[in-house]
Design brief:
about 280 residues, mainly alpha, 11 helices, about 80% helix
């Protein structure tokens, strides 16, 4: 097993090196160094400040962008020049609040729906209609009603997180083994105790699966939402750098989004492993 692990790691490194090599070759400048220097000098004379991308950036430019941003992640030089840690903090804060609100709504409601076939049949049409709606479609209504971009972003995270959690919770609760429920009934276990000691542990893996899916969707949506509402956040950072045609910074932000998304997913995978069981 350990040998297979090292083999897969080595293969990943080889694939990454191959990808970077192809990228490096494909992004080599076609103009002479003299022409590039003349363009840089002209840009400096015109007072255009930092040089902007003149094509897809090579890997070394991405490396410089990574070093630059990670060397001062907490800088705050105004609305359009904040460090990546500050931008990430805003994004994670919005995701955290929206996700927590979704938990408060989805878990109790999913529990009730899962325990009551009548309520499940009554609410299922509403869930099926609301579930496919893109979270971003709610953004205009949220901005008009709430009149606050931060709260609107949180609302969008809430609305996109609530459905996977609600459906998985209801499914997990409804599919708890009848034998276990019969034993609880035979022992005259009170409803609240049965819910907490029998149903919740049995449904926990399915509930965590729903939470993991919700977090993945929330992290996808927050980037798009922040591009729309602006202000702060890693999505706004991407949009702002695109407007500056600073493609190395855009690619750096994409890498950060991917790494943070992977870390969040790993956290929920760890929680899933803790509550999983074999029958």
């Amino acid at each position: 097993m350990k040998k297979e692990h090292w083999k897969s790691l080595l293969l990943s490194v080889v694939l990454f090196a191959f990808f970077v090599g192809v990228w490096f070759v494909a992004t080599q400048p076609k103009e002479s160094a003299q022409q590039a220097a003349a363009q840089d000098e002209y840009a400096a004379l015109m007072g255009k400040g930092a040089a902007k991308s003149g094509g897809f950036p090579p890997p070394q430019e991405i490396g410089k962008a990574i070093v630059t941003h990670l060397s001062d992640p907490f800088k705050d030089n105004g609305p359009n020049d904040k460090g990546i840690a500050i931008q990430l903090g805003h994004s994670l804060g919005r995701v955290g609040v929206g996700f927590a609100l979704a938990i408060l709504v989805a878990l109790p409601l999913g529990f009730v729906i899962g325990m009551s076939p009548l309520l499940h049949r009554a609410l299922d049409p509403f869930i099926q209609v609301l579930k496919p709606i893109s979270p971003l479609a709610w953004m205009p209504l949220a901005l008009y009603t709430i009149k606050d971009s931060d709260l609107s972003g949180i609302f969008v995270i809430f609305i996109c997180s609530v459905w996977p959690m609600l459906i998985n919770t209801a499914f997990g609760v409804a599919n708890v083994r009848k034998d276990w429920l019969n034993v609880a009934r035979t022992l005259e276990v009170r409803p609240l105790r049965k819910a907490l000691t029998v149903i919740l542990p049995a449904a926990a893996p399915t509930i965590l699966t729903g939470m993991r899916i919700s977090m993945g969707i929330a992290w996808l949506v927050i980037v798009a939402a922040e591009m729309l509402v602006g202000g702060t956040g890693v999505g706004y950072f991407v949009w702002n750098e695109w407007n500056n045609l600073a493609l190395p910074n855009v690619i750096f932000a994409i890498l950060v989004i991917g790494v943070v998304g992977m870390a969040l997913d790993r956290c929920f995978a760890g929680l899933q492993a803790l509550v999983s069981y074999t029958e």
